[in-house]
Amino acid sequence: MRTVALAHLTTLALDPPAMLRLAARTGYDAVGLRLIRVTPDSPGYPLMDDPALLRATRAAMRETGVAVHDIEFVRLTPETEVAALEPFLAAGAELGARQAIAAPYDPDLGRLADRFGALCDLGARYGIGVVLEFFPWTVVPGPAEAAAVVAAAGRDNGGILVDTLHFDRSGATLDTLRAIPPTRLPFLHLCDAPAARPADTEGLLHQARAERLPPGEGGLDLAGVLAAMPAGIPVSLEVPMTALTREAGPEAVARRVREAARRVLEPLRPDRAGPERPRLRPAT
Fold first, then answer.
1. Using one digit for the tens of pLDDT, what is the confidence trace for 178-232?
2. Which Gene3D superfamilies does the record cross-reference, listed alphabetically (predicted)?
């Protein structure tokens, strides 16, 4: 069975123990935890610096049976000191995380590849793979550019994180995904959004960080992306819905997102007979 994880951005106001318990109540197999904050006004939960919270997180994992699939969020910048990230990876290993997510914020692509490779080497010491996530507003805007950086780094545990929103907004084609070696695509961030692309970077950032749609409720070609990716890889649902969270709470968001993903992913199960494709837009 495919692992379905809850990405922390979907319920970012919850600390890791609370998120794990919510994930268990709403039908997820795993979570992705944000240990390093992304922006000054959004939270991160530095378990590597908080032994009590790390113990509470491990206790919640034992209580619920929900795993930690990945940890985030490493911004690779000209100032990044990879050695300083060892506590982050050590905490991830203690939680059983399989992947760590890095982001490209260094305009020197050669230096970026070197730092990514060094991070992969550090991750390998802890049994953790490292994926480079591409973003349309960065120097690595799409999957082809991410693949070039990962190839230049040349580490076996280095991969690329495809997010269905960023893939669409990058303007890349499905052939670009098909050209990437399957071993470089260990999991997927799944969400939906309106087909119309924001007009500027501010709009891209707001949509990506605050207002996405559950799978199947927008206009992205989710079926195409899923078909182009390795079959059965874990899927992490990264669907921030800030307005609905304020109105109904994070559990309602997590539950709605999980049920929407079930409708999209169920027809793709290998044990289902026939060529049925998922219906990716609500009936009208």
1. 999 999 999 999 999 999 999 899 999 999 999 999 999 999 999 999 999 999 9
2. Divalent-metal-dependent TIM barrel enzymes
> In terms of C-beta distances under 8 Å and separation of at least 24 residues, what long-range contacts does 278-281 make, across chains too?
278/216, 278/222, 278/223, 278/226, 279/216, 280/192, 280/215, 280/216, 280/220, 280/221, 280/222, 280/223, 281/216, 281/217, 281/218, 281/219
Q: Could you give the dihedral angle defined by the CA atoms of residues 165, 79, 108 and 99, in that order, rounded to the nearest 10 degrees?
A: -40
Dihedral angle sign, alpha carbons of residues 167, 231, 222, 239: negative
Q: Note if the pTM is more than 0.90.
A: yes
Dihedral of CA atoms 134, 137, 141, 142 in degrees, nearest 10, equals 70
CATH of segment(s) 4-268: 3.20.20.150
